[in-house]
Amino acid sequence: RTPTAGASVSAVDDFGVQRQFRVEAHDGVKTLFDAELNVQTYDFEFRDPVLASEQLPGDAIHAGASDFSGSAVSAHANACEVSRYMREVLKRANIDNQSGRMTSSINCVDGSDSPDGKQWLNAFWNGSQMVYGQRIDGAADMLSMSAALDVVAHEMFHGVTDKTSRLVYAQQSGALNESYSDIFGIIINNQQEPDARLWNWALGSGLLPGGDPFRDLSNPGKFGQPDHMTNYKKLPNTRAGDYEGVHTNSGIHNKAAYNMLTGTGSGAKPVLKPREVAAVFYLALTQHLAPTSQFRDSRNGVLSSARSLFRKDPPAERELKLKVIGDAFSQVGVG
Ligand code: ASN
Ligand code: ZN
């Protein structure tokens, strides 16, 4: 018997992009598990994870001579990418900050939600792992909701929020919970482009039939979200009301993040680097917010984080950064 060992492999993801990722190899069988990052991906084989009779995460994914499916590659490679961003940029060791296992399940369906019991255009963090549905266009054409890195990062940051501030998933704290996930989703998805004015601000591009995304941080109104407190939607605090519109009112806080990332003061270029914005939001989320925090608390937490992170900057630079942040929130009516 040969011992299990890490191996780097290359395969095509659900968007048709060649990805490199690590697996465990044993006697010619590869398993979708990166032991170094502690990221593992499972197949739920078109069962409904909400049913009491079904047990997540499902089956480990193996490949011999044949390749891994595009859906499996997407979920695994994207989770590994978020793990690396957490480690390298945020100095966080995975979702639990203790290098704990990060688990994803693909091919999940919602039997009650989809007529064929197979198509389920959503993804969620269930309190301990990521769960992904998929789009099915015909017999063989399938796209996992894990294909989009921004969606994967969004779900994984629900895990980070769960382990840190524990923002209650209703009303303003719930909209903050949603917005922090959107913000890290977009920042991680655009990490290769240093100038945020050139970013793709849409979340979930290419996932839905027709390819339309579902939110846009630069233009929340495009998907029916408010971008200012004067248009805060007072939906009922019920499941049907999305708990007072946590996926709607998040647009206000998302737009503040967009303003922060693109704000130039009176200069020619954005004042804050994306990694600086990531750092101040991360510090705010993990150190300054609490379960019942409101939009105003996020503004104060982000400003406090910026004051401590930029304390060694020349005073004029620090003041400019703080002004861009304050203005970003004031422009959406969070004063
Ligand atoms: N995709 C949705 C989200 O992460 C599902 C949910 O948990 N409401 O917000
Ligand atoms: Zn969410």
From TrEMBL:
Belongs to the peptidase M4 family. Coiled coil: none annotated. Its cofactor is Zn(2+). It comes from Massilia frigida. This is Neutral metalloproteinase. Keywords: Hydrolase, Metal-binding, Metalloprotease, Protease, Secreted, Zinc. Extracellular zinc metalloprotease. It is found in: Secreted. Residues 15-162 form the Peptidase M4 domain. Residues 165-334 form the Peptidase M4 C-terminal domain. Its EC number is 3.4.24.-. The lineage of its organism: Bacteria, Pseudomonadati, Pseudomonadota, Betaproteobacteria, Burkholderiales.
